[in-house]
Specification:
CATH architecture of the largest domain: Orthogonal Bundle
Distance between the termini: 37 Å
Structural class: mainly alpha
CATH topology of the largest domain: Tetracycline Repressor, domain 2
CATH superfamily of the largest domain: Tetracycline Repressor, domain 2
Order of helices and strands: HHHHHHHHHHH
């Protein structure tokens, strides 16, 4: 494989510098980015910056995609460090990965999980990065279902929702389940419940909704994650013996 040309490498470096400076503006000014101000801090005239990002929305899309990818990477790395058989610990690790990244990057978290940016419409390329955390949650619950674990007395799924989730599963690149009980659609619906609960917990903390209510934030977060682990029917399954393939 040939190396990128010097011109291409310089272009990539400048684009990365633009993104880094835009993230600093994001932390200071929120999503109301000024391309002129970003260009000034990079050392470019505004017309030169447009060669890298043609408008504000293109730069916002790059920042949004970066934020989703960084959040997912932190969450998945935390979860990957846990033994596969310890399903509750995997869920806790995933949650703590999300929480830690959000607290360390509140402006970027607000960009992807705060109020929508006025007049901005997210393009299709943001969908994949945005779905990585929920896909990781589905993976944990699929592992649980494969061991015969099931959510605690879930309410029956309406037929229309069941059909929609089945279509999503059939269209998804994820491995297809080899088990039938609980129904895969029920497992996905439970994962979506965990997804909304997890990000609700994180958003309440990042956006100050727990101020003057809860001081022991990490302990509170872990307790709530254990509640949803119980709801999902998670447990520690028997570890494979050293001789198992």
């Amino acid at each position: 494989m040939s190396m990128p040309s010097l011109r291409a490498r310089v272009r990539a470096e400048i684009a990365e510098e633009i993104r880094a400076i835009a993230k600093r503006h994001l932390a200071a000014d929120g999503a109301n980015l000024s391309l002129r101000a970003v260009a000034r801090d990079v050392g470019l005239v505004p017309s030169a910056l447009y060669r890298y990002f043609p408008n504000r929305d293109a730069l916002l899309t790059a920042l949004i995609t970066d934020a989703y990818a960084a959040l997912a990477a932190a969450a998945k790395a935390s979860e990957a460090a846990i033994p596969r058989h310890d399903l509750t610990a995997r869920l806790l690790a995933l949650g703590h990965g999300v929480r830690s990244w959000a607290l360390d990057h509140p402006a970027e978290y607000a960009l992807i999980y705060g109020s929508p940016v006025p007049s901005y419409e997210a393009p299709p390329e943001t969908t994949g990065p945005a779905s990585e955390v929920v896909m990781a949650l589905i993976g944990i619950l699929f592992d649980a279902a494969g061991h015969g674990l099931r959510p605690a007395a879930p309410r029956p799924l309406p037929a229309a929702i069941r059909a929609e989730l089945r279509r999503r599963l059939d269209q998804s690149p994820m491995p297809k389940p080899t088990w039938t009980e609980p129904a895969p659609e029920v497992v996905i619906a439970t994962a979506f419940t965990l997804w909304t609960q997890l990000f609700g917990l994180v958003s309440f903390e990042v956006f100050g909704r727990l101020d003057d209510l809860i001081e022991e934030r990490r302990e509170y977060f872990e307790y709530q994650m254990l509640v949803i682990a119980d709801f999902a029917g998670l447990a520690t399954v028997a570890a494979p013996s050293p001789g198992d393939g």
